[in-house]
Amino acid sequence: MANGDVLLNATIGFQTTLGIPNVVFTLYRDNQPIFNAGASGLAILAIQPVTISYLDLNVPAGYHAYSLGVANNSTNILLNTASITGPVTFSGVSTG
Fold it and tell me: Where do the domains of the chain lie?
């Protein structure tokens, strides 16, 4: 079987709860990171939607598990906090 491509799309709502947090959203294939996208908080309590689209190229044939993770990447995570508020959507489709 030939390798294929997978188009991944995610939308995540997050809210700044303190300071100016920097968050990193990571897409994983089979528990291995394949893509990172960063976002910074806005005004306190402002909800910011983040949209991610990624084309995973040349994926080996067979079953693969994809997941989405988020981490606070701020210098001081106690003074720069955020919450995932939703909605959260995550989907993927094989394109070839």
Answer: 4-82
